[in-house]
Amino acid sequence: MSSTVFAASTGLDFPLAQQLTVVALCALTAFLSHLALAVFNDGVRPFMLDFVQGRTTRSATTAVSFGLSAGFIFGLGAPMALSSGVLNPWLLFLPTDVLGILAPEKWLAPLLGGAWGAVVVFGLDGANDLAHDLPVDFLTAMQQMATPILFLFTLFPVLAITRQFGRLRGALAGGVELALVVLTMKVWPEVFAGAPAMAVGVLLLIGFAVAKDVRQRRAERDTAAVVTSTRGQAPGDPVAGKGAASGGPGVGGTPGEVDPMVSLFGSSAARLRRHLPLFMVLGSGVCLLAQLHVFGGGEATSFLIAKGQYAEAAQVDFYRALGFIPLIATTALASGAYGIVGFTLAYPVGYLLPSPWLAMVCGALIFAGEVLALSWIGKVLGGLPSVRDSSEHLRAAIGDTLQLAILFGSLLAAEAMGGGLGILIAGGLYLLNEAVGRVVVRMAAAPAAVVVTGIILNLLHWLHLFTPVKS
Fold first, then answer.
1. Which of 75, 178, 244, 258 is deepest in the core (most CB within 10 A)?
2. DSSP assignment letter at 166
3. pTM for the structure as a whole
4. For 351-383, what is the HEC assignment?
5. pLDDT tens across 310-352, in order?
6. According to the UniProt record, where is the region Disordered (predicted)?
7. Reduced to 3 DSSP states, what percent helix, strand and coil does the chain have, rounded to the nearest 5?
């Protein structure tokens, strides 16, 4: 595999069956959002509890959802789909979050969601063709984003290890990953060079976290044994053995007292389990969409799907899921609203399955397992604090690597369109957004700046003030 990666196709002209699948899935996701059973935006999910319990209005929740989603829809989702030729969750599911919550009636939500799906699959291809016919083809230039996104994304385990376990282990992980990338490019050139490196990096992170939790538990057991032994030797100690005898919480606790957080988590999990058949249908749709290979679950995955490297895409999205499972599980248990794409495990499974029917069955089973296991996952995460912290570091590292990669790739795209003038305009728009307090979220600001730069360069060309770099 070359060290430079471009998307293989930028066409969005899907067959009718695939278009109808997208429309139906958008209708379903809007319906679930209307019922406050699931939303895609992790930032909106915590607000759903107040909405469910009637402490906030539908219009106020809609405003929150739109405010947290608009930048990602128009700044990241649409440019990424147009440049890669592959749909993504920001473009499909963030708008259905908003439309579902906005709809005042239950029957209207799927109509609005389906209408958005129709706009995407029937309208985006026309916009794609129009953009490619412009004198300055900024969509083709945006394929320059693929290389930095794919290769810098490889480093997210190194960043997570460094943040959680220090410089020495971070440097060790970085050296191992670099050696694996070089080895893969030399020995297995047909394989995406970052795939084996990411696998080893994630395994190192999990290994460090589990080892730390094991050591901590062993130390706690030793301390508890010493305390018990000491109290057993102190005659008349009123506290010793109280907890063990009662079976209650022991020192500082009140037998029979119910933790309000445990009660909330239990009621949320029960609410989601009551709608299990609906979630199984949703899982079928998400896994089917991934199996059709017209959809990529992440920034890096979109370009890998476009290149037809489905195994590598599955691997990338699986690692990404590890960073988001604790967040999705805890916010779902706290709010009673699940993730529209679940733990995102349906993505990698769908990419690899050979049959749409098999994908529908597997997607339903995956979502059923996830919903039924939510309470257990919450308890496990409570007992493995370092593993839970690792997911937070992974998520932060993914955000950092992607921000740099998207910014770097966007400047490459701007340079491909207009040379130094392109970099000046795109970089200037990015910096202006930072200076005014990030009107557009940082992750989406650079691709949005490239699109605006492309429009400006075309206007300058029509005014005979600019000659495209490539005619």
1. 75
2. -
3. 0.79
4. HHCCCHHHHHHHHHHHHHHHHHHHHHHHHHHHH
5. 998 998 898 888 778 887 888 888 888 999 999 999 999 999 9
6. 222-252
7. 75, 0, 25
